[in-house]
Automatic annotation (TrEMBL):
Its EC number is 3.2.2.9. This is adenosylhomocysteine nucleosidase. PANTHER family: 5'-METHYLTHIOADENOSINE/S-ADENOSYLHOMOCYSTEINE NUCLEOSIDASE, 5'-METHYLTHIOADENOSINE_S-ADENOSYLHOMOCYSTEINE NUCLEOSIDASE. The lineage of its organism: Bacteria, Pseudomonadati, Pseudomonadota, Betaproteobacteria, Burkholderiales. Gene3D superfamilies: Nucleoside phosphorylase domain. GO terms for cellular component: cytosol. GO terms for molecular function: adenosylhomocysteine nucleosidase activity; methylthioadenosine nucleosidase activity. The keyword Hydrolase applies. It comes from Bordetella genomosp. 13. SUPFAM superfamilies: Purine and uridine phosphorylases (SSF53167). Residues 10-242 form the Nucleoside phosphorylase domain. Pathway: Amino-acid biosynthesis; L-methionine biosynthesis via salvage pathway; S-methyl-5-thio-alpha-D-ribose 1-phosphate from S-methyl-5'-thioadenosine (hydrolase route): step 1/2.
Amino acid sequence: MTGAIPSMATLGILAALPDEIRDLLYEMGPAASTRRIGMRDYHHGVLYGRPCVLALTRIGKVAAAATTATLLREFDVDRVVFTGVAGGLDARLRVGDVVVGSALVQHDLDASPLFPRHEVPLLQTSRFPADEALAGLLHRCAGEFLAQHGGGAALHRGLIATGDRFVHEAGFARELREALPEALCVEMEGAAVAQVCHEFGVPCAVLRTISDCADQDAPVDFATFLREVASVYSAGILRRFLAALPA
Ligand code: ADE
């Protein structure tokens, strides 16, 4: 979907881990109501004047797809934003940079020779584009946030690669770069969320802060960034995004 963002019903906000949305959940406050479905808590409330449902997917594509399907079936959500951290694949990316996805691909989906590598069987595509209007607004808000709090961190927009593997070996990272040279970063949920949103006809966008460079230091860098920075970035950018959404 492209064009202006229509006035909104409810925004779904998803993240994989508690650290990625801790501040947003806190800001929803005690007035939020929580429904537990399929081992997930869906927090329904208001953030910066906008009705929102906030939920944790947990890690991985199956967990993310299941949470997204429940979010779209059980709540009156008319657009979805996923926020979290990612490993940098492109050599230009540094820890603390922000990536707004223009499209998402499952780097570990390979039904060849029946279908081309990365293509989602029977959907005839390997890439799920993010909604241009949502991604454009996220990009603007991330730029404003980084200009004030980024300390020189850069903002990028491009392809995000998703798969069920935490990437921390140089060899595998190199294989990914060769297979998907335009991929900026790697994570474990985004393309699953984007595929489910595509199948339900709901616009979505993905925001990722680079926590590590998908190398041998990734496990330590990831844990430190998650604990100390991830939630501040998510909340700082989404606060601006929510305030800028049409009422
Ligand atoms: N999320 C954050 N860092 C990651 C990495 N190195 N691999 C996969 N997902 C990630």
